[in-house]
Amino acid sequence: MTTQATPSNLLPLNPEQLARLQAATTDFTPTQLAWVSGYFWGVLNQQSGAAVAVPAQAAEVPSITLISASQTGNARRVAEALRDDLLAAKLNVKLVNAGDYKFKQIAAEKLLVVVTSTQGEGEPPEEAVALHKFLFSKKAPKLDGTAFAVFGLGDTSYEFFCQSGKDFDSKLAELGAERLLDRVDADVEYQTAAAEWRARVVEVLKARAPVAAPAQQATSGAVNDIHTSPYTKEAPLSATLSVNQKITGRDSEKDVRHIEIDLGDSGLRYQPGDALGVWYQNDPQLVKELVELLWLKGDEPVTVDGKTLPLAEALEWHFELTVNTATIVENYATLTRSESLLPLVGDKAQLQQYAAATPIVDMVRFSPAQLDAEALIGLLRPLTPRLYSIASSQAEVESEVHVTVGVVRYEIEGRARAGGASSFLADRVEEDGEVRVFIEHNDNFRLPANPETPVIMIGPGTGIAPFRAFMQQRAADGAQGKNWLFFGNPHFTEDFLYQVEWQSYVKEGLLTRIDLAWSRDQQQKIYVQDKLREQGAELWRWINDGAHIYVCGDANRMAKDVEHTLLEVIAEYGAMDAEAADEFLSELRVERRYQRDVY
């Protein structure tokens, strides 16, 4: 069979365009030609704004919007698992990061599911702050046509457990939305609760959103790009610790370490702004102390995830020992009938206060009891990895990853105590020793796409870590945009982290400005927010020039003080009232020009 050629005078292409098209497709298979045909048809529809036609029945299928609001990645993992469940049930679902969600369209949502964590003192995760503020503002619309479900993740060691989930749940209902399921508040060990909730959500939504027709299903599975790697939180990479260097002075009150980890030929990739997840081993001496206080030996068999292990091994590798919680205190008091702890039972504030001040081992020391091994395991929470802001760019360090670790050290009645992960890296892993790691990607803390965009970096203490990565990346890219660093710590001579590197960047002209706040070098304490206020006029000029603002460090105090100061600067130099300044900063957040990595 032959195909008659179309006369050239009837074609919409001139001879030169036709020749280029024929040359480009000369070796294409029929399948490839068909794909290209469909590709250009799709491009045409995108450009013209035309909608893709779907069968009438498919067009009526309600769409499920699934919002992931994550701080450390757990909420994102739950949301991704739910998305997979819904797609497997042939339901039409769209998964969206809370930071990418166009929240003014929320009134058009028919079926809405929110999976959210909580950070700081009951605040929403960084990527959900704008959505949270919108829903709690006067601009929030009525949601009479929306049905919703909320899953909250939290940590009972914090006072405002799952507060963000509670906020979204109550506000959506207050705005008129129908609650499909009661909210679930999950602790650190969230997996079982999440699996049960996901199954209930799928069943409820199957009744509300009929199964999608095949034509609809083909276009309904679009979700945000997901970082893929063979190494995950559940299956970490066994890497090598190559450098452990103390970078605070001999007389510093802080012990801060620069840690370098060799990723070898793993191919593990990260970007500036990402975090490194570190699995750690509890201090064997701490385990020995706890076991002996309970009149145990450490060789008692216990069951962990279906496996039988000696108690000491289970405590070293599988359970959290350095963070106490109100729930643990309450359960220990009830189980042991401790005379000193029983009066705290039922008093949430007292329990929180006691747990925050008293590590588990000291709780047992102050209120001794005899427990069997399984009872002890039943009290404890599973060990979870710690996340550290990455302090390097692979454009410079290639197959390495660097982190800046503030080692937690303190005393309880003369007994030395330390943070689990920080002391593991600083004290217990020898150079060339094994460290199990993974990358926690953070698309909400990224350098501007345009290398000419100015950057303002605010990072006191170990909050300086990601900005070291930023500068390495900007240097490697030859970025022409201006860079301004605000850094603070107690003393100039003891606590100027990476001092030589910053001075080198200033000398080279890459670091345009640096403002330093030393809180203990003079009688009056000076913090980074004081430097921001002092440089208010210039700060406002940079903002007007399109600068992106980044904040990294303590969420509860520093980040709040910095935000308050930014609002003051915007109000004063932008001639705005407080409400307008707040809206201005919120808009910067929505535009990804104000990003925070706080903890």
Walk me through this protein's architecture.
- The chain is of the alpha/beta class and 599 residues long.
- The termini are far apart.
- The strands form five sheets. Strands 1, 2, 3, 4, 5 and 6 form a six-stranded parallel sheet that branches. A six-stranded antiparallel sheet has the order 12-9-16-7-8-13, with helices on one face. A five-stranded parallel sheet has the order 19-18-17-20-21, sandwiched between helices.
- The N terminus is likely disordered.
- Helix 4 runs parallel beside helix 7 and helix 9 runs parallel beside helix 13.
- It has four domains: 145 residues, 3-Layer(aba) Sandwich (Rossmann fold), CATH 3.40.50; 99 residues, Elongation Factor Tu (Ef-tu), domain 3 (Beta Barrel), CATH 2.40.30; 96 residues, NADPH-cytochrome p450 Reductase, Chain A, domain 3, CATH 1.20.990.10; 144 residues, Nucleotide-binding domain of ferredoxin-NADP reductase (FNR) module (Rossmann fold).
- Its EC number is 1.8.1.2.
- This is Sulfite reductase [NADPH] flavoprotein alpha-component.
- InterPro entries: CysJ, CysJ-like_FAD-binding, CysJ_Proteobact, FAD-bd_FR_type, Flavdoxin-like, Flavodoxin/NO_synth, Flavoprot_Pyr_Nucl_cyt_Rdtase, Flavoprotein-like_sf.
